[in-house]
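User: Structure tokens for this complex, please. No commentary.
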Amino acid sequence: MDDTRLQVLRGAYDSIARRGMAKTTVDDVAAASGVSRATIYRLFPGGKEELLRDTVGWEMDRFFLQLGQELGDAADFPEFLERALPLARRELREHEVLQKVLETEPDRLNALITVQQHRVIGAIAAYFLPLLERDRDAGHIDPTADLPRCAEYVARLSLSLIASPGRHDLGDPAEVRRLVRRELLGGVWS
Amino acid sequence: MTLAVSAPAPVDVRAREAVLTCIGRFGLAKTTIDDIAREAGCSRATLYRYFDGKPEIVRSAVVAEHERVAGVVVAAGRAAATFGDAVVAAVVAGARELRGHDALQFLLAHEPEAVLGHLAFGPGDRLLIAVGDAIAPAFDRWLTQGDAIRAGEWLARVVRSYVLMPHPPIDFTDPTAARVFLEQFVIPGLESR
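Assistant:
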């Protein structure tokens, strides 16, 4: 991503963190990022709405990228997920800007997250695929299994679990182990 | 007695059906109490005797729809011969109800902020638990009660992600496609052990 675009997204993120999405204006973002209004409109022709949407998408990408870096290596994919799910859930709950905007502007934020979600699912699935291939090559997964589809399923349902765990306690290692080895991977991994 | 058969449905039932029809036609924001009264074939005053206003009619319709759809899903699952068949039948029935739901689809397409806040994060937790509990009886012939509730919640989660979110990679209203997918990825993880 080019530097100016990144600068604008950072400025927009800071402005949303300070005053929320409804009150953030293109002028605020220009001031927060040190980029002119004209340049912002050139980079985001849709103006404020496009800026908000892309900022939400950018922060979602950044969240999962950082998560991936913190996780490091695991012996196999189930072990990776067993570490990833509790960590992701904890970071999500501790994400101050997300929690604040969820409280003040939940409907608007949810609509933007939903629009961006399939792109993020694609990125997570792309991250999972080589881990699944490694386990297939090690004999844990049936060689005929449709791994891209499996990666997509695990990405979708992992995202679902960390956003809304329902009755599942992602702080309980035994529960996470059961979720990973049965609901998420029970069909393909042994 | 033919009287009971030909008598119109009670006002509250008609109001719930009317609000869904109106939302399917022009959305939630543009639907007024007058529209609902006209569609239900009664006066505003009559509606106000049963409901405090439009939000209460909407809430009441949502609760009734939740029960109705859960009923369809449970019946589909219970009619199946095996647990695998029950999961496929329940998911396909649920997907068809949601995809064919004019009011829901209008909102997802044109007023997503009216719906999505109820589906995600904390409100999503409550919804998944409620739907899971409601559809668990579809599976209680094959699973322990605890596992049936767990399976119900998981399938609600799968449907939320694949049927209600944009760009689904698979069409769960198609029984053949649904079966291939569910048999490979979902059903083995839900069986009682």
